[in-house]
Design brief:
14 helices, about 20% strand, globular, 8 strands, alpha/beta, Rossmann fold
Length: about 290
């Protein structure tokens, strides 16, 4: 008998959780919260949303207070009208921590979320207990990759054709089956909300070369990261090659690097079981000091 399809509801079945809106410095911020313990914040990538971590919440909520959020200008979070550069994302993250009364948190950031987490670890290390960089962006400015992100996202947002959203989601995954129809439907709904469409230039501002260079994390920046750091990378990542991950590892003293085979840009989703075990082992080694 074939197994039941993996759905968001199945991933959360039996778990006490809430999806709520938090006022983070005046920005209404969608947040899924579950579990108790040390706080762990999941941060998604460019044009993403908290559903990127649905295969991870249950496992982590057994030991941690999990917060998966829609970042500034993304998903169902507020969309103020300015270009979204990394300091803005950092400040929104810190405002969220303040609103939730969180002094220090573990950060697990995928793609853009890793970029934001790294910036926070550099600027306010006292607020970050540990850092996970999951196919993190921000250390290179590759015009071809930037154009791929900009073009595929804009087409999917500006044209009401779900096949374009499906193609955008499949671009992230090594196995297209991981871009489930449920995820495609959620993203298509988000992409075609009027506020999201109106905000697309702000959201894609980091794909502009001048803006990206202004925000890029250079080796000397990464060398300032002193919090425990785990780097996770897919060997088939379409948005960054393995040397990027290796350079992060070289530049962050004491960091760990793990490469997943047959994996694209969403290691936490594509290799959920392996990632969850890896993450929980890493977090256990770096408990917040009392």
């Amino acid at each position: 008998m074939p197994s039941a399809p993996r759905t968001i509801w199945n991933e959360l079945a039996g778990l006490d959780f809430q999806v709520t809106t938090v006022d983070a410095g005046g920005v209404p911020t969608r947040s899924l919260q579950a579990g108790e313990g040390e706080p762990l914040i999941f941060l998604h990538g460019t044009s993403g949303h908290l559903e990127a971590f649905m295969r991870n919440v249950q496992a982590h909520a057994k030991q941690y207070a999990v917060h998966a959020i829609d970042m500034l200008g993304h998903g169902f979070t507020g969309k103020p009208n300015f270009g979204y550069e990394i300091p803005r994302y950092r400040d929104h993250l810190l405002a969220y921590l303040d609103a939730q009364g969180i002094e220090r948190a573990h950060i697990a950031g995928e793609s853009l979320g890793g970029w934001v987490g790294a910036r926070a670890a550099i600027d306010v290390p006292d607020r970050i207990a540990s850092l996970q960089l999951l196919c993190a962006g921000g250390t290179v400015a590759n015009p071809e990759v930037m154009e791929r992100i900009r073009t595929s996202t804009r087409k999917a947002v500006e044209t009401d054709d779900i096949e374009l959203t499906r193609a955008r989601m499949r671009l992230l995954m090594h196995d297209s089956a991981d871009a489930t129809e449920e995820l495609v439907a959620v993203r298509h709904e988000i992409y075609h909300r009027p506020d999201f469409v109106a905000n697309i230039d702000n959201l894609l501002s980091l794909q502009d070369m001048e803006t990206r260079i202004r925000n890029i994390l250079r080796p000397e920046d990464m060398a300032q990261i002193t919090v425990p750091t785990l780097i996770v990378w897919g060997r088939n990542n379409p948005f960054g090659e393995i040397p990027e991950a290796s350079a992060m590892h070289d530049n962050i003293s004491g960091s760990e690097l793990v490469l997943f085979d047959d994996c694209g840009h969403w290691p936490q989703h594509e290799k959920a079981a392996e990632y969850n075990d890896l993450s929980l082992g890493f977090l256990a080694k770096h408990a917040i000091a009392r």
